Backbone:
């Protein structure tokens, strides 16, 4: 594999940056990977497990001479980091990010990007419910999509390099504008996460149904919600606060539809329910055919002892 | 393993009955397994794959001389089947079912149970998004809970035998009354399923977000919803129509809570969101410790090519 960027700097050393470090090494994409995390504990762990070639004690040290800098911090922390590193970015470098919201990141980060730096926002659609520097693995991006969201007048060569980079860590790449990205993600990720958090919260509140029952009898449906609702609280707080409009719009649509189905249940309209449930089954088939999920029953987890 | 019931009759030959047939054989729990399904196609497949020792062309033939009869049909079909087989049940036999709702099954089936037959409703909390006679497998019930819901004056020996039977196919067994069962399941299964169906339906409706985008970019959150929303439409229609009150009550609670979180997003109350998301994370931990789910990231499915 060809080295695309001699030095890559990862700012924030959680699940995504950690997985990137592993995937960059797997593909031999960089000569040096530097890293920085705000928390001293995270930096110590990263050093202990050799996550990067060098872990720096400041973001500005980490980005020094880097050809690619990736901001992998919660969306709400992007502006502060950009402000800190802006003056220290190398001329001609590419600055990117992995934030789950794009319009707000572009708005908040752009003012701090020097004219001689290529700012190309990105969002890899990959993750797990685990977080922190130990949670990364090289295969996280394999066959997943990475959406690049170039701003106005983006340099074509710089964009092509970043495309190659994401493909080389295993992703499929798509280019999209920020507004559209934020709406698509509100549907496929942000609204479902809020809904899962809500349902798990409701179960937690119900006093007649004890904790033990909710936990033991969670086999069908609920336990999948709990996986989603175990995602990183800081990351998700920032996603909702920064993709407010699209998320609230989709949740509004969701509530209308839910009320419609509730009415069908109340009035005993079995045909309506059956038709609805038949239609949703087809989408699943499409996702499996697109290689975005497994067809194994229960994701394959039912076949062995699980604990 | 000791034979508990010499002859077991399975009425309905879908995922649950099929898995039971495999699990009964794995444990050597019966000398003969008979089966019946309303659809001729299902009966033909069952014969072709040797699902039971004998597949009958009528329910009354299948239950003849059976020591245990298990109704494994959609909840809405239980009464008709019970009416048909009632006069043909062996004296002293146990009649059970696997319906996801218990109060309505008890109400609808009880009138057709002869006095000399032990009617002991049951609900194994196990399943996958697949259905039909080919979808069963022996391990489906391993480490999962089966809830027994005995009616008034249930014979203690008959109940003990049914407990032993479910334990022998791999389950943990719990005894509960019907009202409580239906409320617990509304929280852990019925409401989550309706919510997943709804969210997938919303995505399907959204014209600005094309099908291909919803499908390709479904990695985070949404694809787990699509798995749940791929469950059998007939089964789920009947669940909602037969557990109307508890499901609507929980959905009411859910909507209140959702509105609360929407308000927090709208007003930018990050602390509220962060606290909420931290609390829901703890429930996940409990489910994993109880052996009811895997701790592998993304249920382990991210680690290999998925298609």
Residues:
């Amino acid at each position: 594999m060809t080295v695309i960027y001699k030095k890559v700097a990862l700012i924030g050393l959680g699940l995504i940056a950690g997985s990137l470090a592993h995937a960059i090494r797997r593909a031999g994409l960089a000569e040096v990977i530097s890293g920085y995390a705000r928390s001293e504990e995270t930096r110590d762990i990263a050093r202990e497990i050799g996550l990067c070639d060098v872990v720096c004690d400041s973001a500005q040290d980490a980005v020094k001479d880097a050809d690619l800098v990736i901001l992998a911090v919660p969306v709400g922390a992007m502006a502060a980091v950009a402000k800190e590193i802006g003056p220290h970015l190398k001329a001609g470098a590419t600055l990117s990010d992995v934030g789950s919201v794009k319009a707000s990141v572009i708005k908040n980060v752009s003012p701090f990007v020097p004219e001689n730096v290529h700012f190309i926002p990105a969002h890899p659609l990959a993750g797990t419910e685990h977080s922190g520097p130990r949670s990364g693995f090289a295969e996280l991006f394999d066959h997943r999509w990475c959406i690049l969201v170039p701003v106005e007048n983006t340099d074509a060569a710089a964009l092509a390099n970043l495309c190659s980079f994401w493909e080389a860590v295993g992703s499929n790449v798509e280019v999209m504008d920020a507004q559209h990205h934020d709406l698509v993600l509100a549907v496929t990720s942000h609204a479902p996460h809020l809904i899962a958090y809500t349902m798990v919260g409701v179960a937690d509140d119900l006093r007649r149904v004890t904790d033990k029952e909710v936990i033991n009898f969670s086999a069908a449906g609920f336990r999948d919600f709990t996986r989603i609702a175990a995602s990183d609280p800081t990351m998700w707080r920032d996603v909702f606060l920064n993709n407010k409009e699209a998320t609230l719009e989709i949740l509004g649509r969701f509530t209308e539809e839910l009320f419609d189905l509730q009415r069908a249940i109340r009035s005993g309209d079995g045909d309506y329910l059956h038709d609805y449930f038949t239609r949703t089954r087809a989408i699943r088939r499409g996702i499996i055919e697109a290689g975005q999920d497994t067809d194994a029953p229960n994701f394959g987890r039912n076949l062995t002892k699980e604990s």
Remarks:
- The beta strands of chain B are 7-11, 32-36, 54-55, 68-71, 94-97, 118-119, 122-124, 145-148, 172-175.
- Residues 180-292 of chain B form a domain with the 6-phosphogluconate dehydrogenase C-terminal fold fold (CATH 1.10.3660.10).
